[in-house]
Amino acid sequence: MRNVLPTSELCHKWANMEQESGRTSTGTLFFNRNTIYSYGDHFAIAKHIVNEQGQRAVLFTLRRYSNTTAKHISSVYMSCKNDNLIYCANPIGSHEINFKYWEQSAEHDGANKLAKARKPEKYLAVLADIERTANIYASFFGIQLPETLKALLSIKDKTEFLAFADKKAEFIKAERKIKEAEQKKKFKEDIKKWFNCETSRLYTTYKYDFLRIKDNRIETTQAVQIPLELGKRLYQSIKNGSLSVGDKFLNYSINEVGKEIKIGCHTFKQSYLLKFGSQLS
Questions:
Q1: At how many degrees (to 10) do helices 95-105 and 121-141 cross?
Q2: CA separation for the pair 79, 83 (Å, rounded)
Q3: I need a labelling partner for 231 at 20 to 30 A (CA). Which of 83, 164, 180, 204 fits?
Q4: What are phi and psi of 239, to 5 degrees?
Q5: If you count DSSP H runs as helices and E runs as strands, how many of each does the chain have, helices first?
Q6: What is the distance in angstroms between the CA of the first residue and the CA of the last residue of the chain?
Q7: What is the largest CA-CA distance in the chain?
């Protein structure tokens, strides 16, 4: 299997998923598994993806960069133009990143200019194109457009733009509440799977860590394993108040002792550790 390939052949092999990796002789265009990049992993051109319903698609970038990257984008497009292309800013970015790109485009390239235009048709077309592209993306993933973006895309004249500007802070606040609710729901689902030993580690922005018993050892949500006897000794030192900042536990330093106990990069509620520890004896 050859890994160094001419541009057209490289794009063909990526598009047809014929091998796991490849690059051009200069290394400026390359792919790794399902994603093809220009100049580095900071600029993903396209990515093969399958949604929860089993539908296949290629996420394809809307961004433009240098002239060389523009040529790379064109070559990649030619290799997969007959696939189900779904456009977004960053094929490997989060939904939040991609929606933010459309939001900025809708505000700066569409609604803002529409408010000043004598002939609004051009900017109404910009908003319509963003709406179509964003809706295709959202439909594929089974998600909703953010409220701020929906409000921008509904603007038809200067009056509506000014009304949006007045309410923009409210839209952002509403989106934040929705996001927090989604994160809370996802955390509950993820922590349940972790406690059921369906996953080995919990990836979350939640402040605190948790513990479970697995294979006769204590395990943290960051996948650190602790011998049971050592865990019992830690519990006793917390219970009798002998745990101090600067003490060592395994290879970790005790960084804080109080309502919160910080051990290395782990943060626990003291009340939680006491409750967990009481079940060990």
A1: 170
A2: 9
A3: 204
A4: -65, -40
A5: 9, 13
A6: 58
A7: 78
Alpha carbon distance 82, 3 (integer Å):
25
What are the backbone dihedrals phi and psi of residue 21, each rounded to the nearest 5 degrees, phi first? Answer: -155, 160
Identity at 103, one-letter amino acid code: E
Q: Which two tokens stand for residue 103?
A: 């939001």
Place of tokens 């700066």: 108
Tokens of 278: 């009481």
DSSP, collapsed to helix, strand or coil, labels residue 206 as: coil
Angstrom CA distances, 169 to 97, 140, 145, 176, stand at 19, 29, 17, 11
- Which of the 8 DSSP states describes residue 88? E
Please give the C-alpha separations between residue 208 and each of 60, 123, 204, in angstroms, as whole numbers.
37, 47, 10
H-helix segments, the chain: 7-15, 67-80, 95-105, 112-114, 121-141, 147-153, 158-195, 228-239, 270-277
Give the DSSP letter of residue 222.
T
Name beta bridge partners: 50.
Answer: 56
Tens digits of pLDDT across the chain (281 residues): 789 999 999 999 999 999 999 999 999 999 999 999 999 999 999 999 999 999 999 999 999 888 999 999 999 999 999 999 999 999 999 999 999 999 999 999 888 888 888 888 899 999 999 999 999 999 999 999 998 999 999 998 888 888 888 888 888 888 888 888 888 999 999 999 999 999 988 888 889 999 999 988 999 999 999 999 999 999 999 999 999 999 999 889 999 999 999 999 999 999 999 999 998 86
Q: What is the CA radius of gyration of the chain?
A: 26
Rounded Cα–Cα distance for residues 150 and 111 (Å): 12
Joined together, the tokens standing for residue 119 give 């002939």
